[in-house]
């Protein structure tokens, strides 16, 4: 890579942080982002002065994408994405640094390498967001809702074979389970003393009920039970991937491993529920 490539990377990061600062509702967060924006701009100016080409631009779609991430997944998640890029940039700087013999230039690049990752690391360390603080509560609600209701809906589908009854049974089961989960999360946080019990209960229950609504919806939309069931699995697939991506980025874990664990859990419970549903119909003779 050459100075133009580095300038282009820094300009991109500068524009993204600048755009994030514009939409940031929290004043303290906005001040932190603006501080990083200034550092990114300084690095951009340094490389632009060394570049023969002085014109740079960033696509609006990329800017909108990061603003979308901020609004949907939160600031820390978005910064974590940028943090990975910053680490890559630092590695590229190190390779470029090895080619130079100018002491002043090497010193300046060394400083840029040192603060490239520190900017994002420091920002993440200072930020506090409920969706991250209560990540375990959210994951608990999403995971339990996904695994339990997927299994329940599969069982109901083969036992009842009436989409309206299946949807109603699934909804009632899900709502009752979400209240139970919220209560359990509240009590756990209350006696654990690490989190706000009310928020822990709300986040767990809300995450669970969102999964319930998403998984039950296909049975209200499609006429055929097994089309609804297939659509439900499609929705479950999207939920698993979104949840795995969120956790993998925030906790810096392997995305495929997290998604695989959830898939295995969901498929396992679904298979057991399928067998139970078939046995129920066989021994009871009930078919709606």
What does this structure look like?
With 288 residues, the protein is mostly helical. The chain folds into two domains: 3-128, Ferritin; 131-284, no CATH class. The protein is 86% helix and 0% strand. It has helices at 3-23, 27-50, 60-73, 75-97, 103-126, 130-133, 135-160, 163-192, 197-221, 225-251, 255-284. Helix 1 (3-23) runs antiparallel to helix 2 (27-50). The longest helix has 30 residues, at 163-192. It starts with a helix and ends with a helix.
Q: Give the SSE string.
A: HHHHHHHHHHH
Total of domains: 2
Give the rounded overall mean pLDDT.
81
Main sheet record: none
> Which structural class fits the helix and strand makeup?
mainly alpha
Q: Which range best describes the helical content: under 10%, 10-25%, 25-40%, 40-55%, 55-70% or over 70%? A: over 70%
Portion in strands: under 5%
Spans of at least 5 consecutive residues whose pLDDT stays below 50 are none
Write the layout of secondary structure elements.
Blueprint: H1 3-23, H2 27-50, H3 60-73, H4 75-97, H5 103-126, H6 130-133, H7 135-160, H8 163-192, H9 197-221, H10 225-251, H11 255-284
Helix pairs in contact: 1-2, 1-3, 2-5, 3-4, 4-5, 7-8, 7-9, 7-10, 7-11, 8-9, 9-10, 10-11
């Amino acid at each position: 890579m050459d100075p133009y490539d580095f300038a282009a990377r820094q300009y991109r990061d500068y524009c993204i942080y600048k755009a994030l600062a514009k939409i940031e509702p929290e004043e303290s967060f906005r001040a932190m982002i603006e501080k990083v924006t200034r550092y990114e701009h300084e690095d951009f100016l340094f490389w632009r002065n060394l570049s023969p080409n002085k014109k740079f631009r960033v696509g609006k779609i990329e800017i909108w994408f990061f603003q979308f991430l901020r609004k949907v997944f939160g600031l820390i998640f978005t910064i974590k994405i940028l943090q990975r890029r910053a680490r890559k940039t630092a590695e590229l700087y190190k390779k470029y640094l090895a080619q130079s013999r100018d002491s002043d230039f090497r010193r300046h690049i060394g400083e840029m390498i040192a603060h490239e990752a520190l900017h994002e690391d420091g920002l993440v360390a200072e930020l506090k967001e409920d969706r991250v603080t209560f990540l375990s509560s959210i994951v608990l609600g999403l995971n339990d809702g996904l695994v339990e209701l997927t299994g329940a809906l599969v069982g109901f589908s083969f036992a009842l074979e009436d989409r309206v009854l299946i949807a109603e049974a699934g909804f009632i089961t899900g709502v009752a389970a979400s209240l139970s989960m919220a209560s359990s999360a509240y009590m756990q946080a209350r006696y654990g003393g690490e989190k706000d019990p009310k928020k822990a209960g709300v986040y767990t229950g809300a995450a669970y009920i969102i999964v319930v609504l998403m998984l039950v919806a296909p049975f209200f939309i499609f006429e055929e039970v097994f089309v609804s069931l297939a659509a439900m699995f499609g929705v479950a697939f999207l939920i698993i991937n979104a949840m795995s991506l969120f956790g993998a980025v925030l906790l810096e874990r392997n995305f495929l491993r997290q998604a695989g664990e959830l898939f295995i859990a969901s498929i396992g419970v679904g298979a057991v529920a399928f067998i139970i549903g078939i046995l129920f119909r066989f021994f009871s003779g009930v078919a709606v």
